[in-house]
Amino acid sequence: MITEPNDLVRCFGNGDPLYEAYHDDEWGVPVHGEAALLERIVLEGAQSGLSWVTILRKREGYREAFAGFEPAVVAEFGEADVERLLGDPGIVRNRRKIESAITNARAVVGLHEAGDTLDELFWSFAPAAREAAPATWADVPASTPESVALAKELKRRGFVFVGPTTMYAAMQACGLVDDHIAGCLALTR
User: Catalytic annotation on 123?
Assistant: First the structure.
């Protein structure tokens, strides 16, 4: 944790205005809606092996490249789109990550065809709220029974790149859990 000049404490993200804004205004705030949740799942998968700030810097490129993450639109992407995206410097140009975004959009469409929504499915795995904020990052798990179960159910429904650790990160990002460290300024919002 780094103490800010104004005596407020931010548990991560200091030094980069984009990262600070993500910490202060977004991480841990509840996210709902098919496109918004698909975006978070795709970005968490894209982050695998990279720093989160790298993905934040490419986020607008992702939104443009993947049609605002509208599942029905992205689900229609084909091989020509994959090739186009492989040449797009605004995103991480990794074939498996690009194809996973399309596969996951198709899985969202499949949920809809089955009468379900990604929003309802995703949020059905929200754990009970913690009684106290974690004291240190060592107290924050990499995965939980809920993220393991969510990953398993998403895979059963056709999603890819959705392992338990990646899904726990998505649960943090989407506000299913609040892992801001004790003393963090975000806990006062």
Answer: no
